[in-house]
Amino acid sequence: MSLRGKAAIVGIGEFKPSRYTEGATTLGMLVEVGRQAVADAGLEIGEVDGLITENFAEAPFMAPSSVVEYLGIRAKFAELVDLGGATGAGMAARAAMAIASGLCETVLCVTGTRREARSPSGQRRSASSGYAGRRVDRTPYSEFEAPFGAIGANYGYAMIANRYRHEYGVTPEQLAKIAVAQRYNACHNPDAMFFGQPITVEDVLNSPVIVDPLHMLEIVMPCAGAAALVVTSAKKARRMKRPAAYVLGAGEQTTHRSITYAPSLTHTAIK
Question: Is residue 135 part of a domain?
Answer without folding.
Answer: no
